[in-house]
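Team,

Forwarding the record for the chain on the shared tracking sheet. I've put the sequence and predicted structure together so nobody has to dig through attachments.
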Amino acid sequence: LILPSAMWVEKEGIMGQTDRRSQFTPKLVDPPGEARPDFWQIKEVARRIAQKLDRKTRYRVLDPLTGRVKAVKEVYGLGFETEEEAWNEYRLCTRGRDVDLWGATYTKLQAHAGGVQWPCPSTDFENRGTAKRYVSKEYARQVFGETVKRYKTGYVTLYDQHLEEKGLPGPINYYGAHPFHKGSEGKAIIRVLKAGLDFEMPDAEYPVVLNTGRVIEHWHSGTMTMRVRLLRELNPHAYVEVSPEDARKLGVSNEDRLKLISRRGEIVLPVWVTKRARPGMVFVPWFDERKLINLLTVDDPQSWSGAGEPDYKVCAIKLMKV
C-alpha cells in the first residue's frame, strides 16, 4: 500500500527538535493531487479497519488547560479528529515526567514561533519551558535564594528561565531519579572515550580509512530529497572525496573512477579531488541508493564495544584505479 503524503509545508502539526524544543508548523500550501497529511492517512486507515471489524473506541475529549475529561465519545478508529486533539493526548502522556510538555498547549505553540522547550509543566501563556536543563546547587541558590527546595543528589534540577529573566523567584522542579545523576553527587556523569577506529584499524592490506555521511543537499538515503529536481541537479550521484596527495599517488583526477574495496564488498565511484579529504582518508555520501556504501562498512554488532551497535560510519579499505 503506497499513499501519497503531503510535505511539511503542506500540512500543519508539531515538530520536535533536538534541543528539547517543540514548534508549531503551519500549513502554507495545499498538497498536490490526492496527497494527504500523514495524520489524516493514519486516522482514515484506522477508521476503515475499525468499521470493517465493527469495533468502536471510547475516546476522551480533554480540556487543554486542566486535562479534565470534557466528554467521552465512541468512534471508529483513533478518536482524534484534529491535530490539536492528538497533541493534547500526547501532552497528557508526558505530564509529571522529566519530558513534561503539558504546558505546551496548541494555542501557545501557535503563538510563539520559537516554540516550547520541555520540561514545560506550566500552562501559563508566557511560560515557554526550560532553556537550561541542569543547574548547579550554587547557581540555583544564587538565582532563587534559600527559600526553595535544596538540590537533591540523583535528581534532575530544572527551572523556569522566564522567571529568572523577569527577576522573580521561582521553584526548582524535581522530576524523579535520573540515570545521568544517580550516585554522582549531583553532577552529570560524562564518559570520555578514546577516539579512533575501535573495531577495524587500517593495515597493510587495507590502508585507507573510509568515512561515510550526509551531504547538505540530501538526507540519509535520498528517498525524499532525490525527488526534488533542484537538489538532484546540485548533487546527482555518489562520489568519493580524495585528498590531492592521495590523488597524485593513485594517478587520478576529478571524474576518474576508483574501486573501493573492503573486507565485505566493493564499489566503483567517480573521484572528487578536494582538500576537504585528509591523506589516508576518503569520504563517500550515503544518499545514492544506486551505490550502497554500507555494503562496505562494518556490520558486526560488536564493532563498537561502548554501544554494542554496528559502526556503519567508518572502516578500512583499499583503493584501485579503474
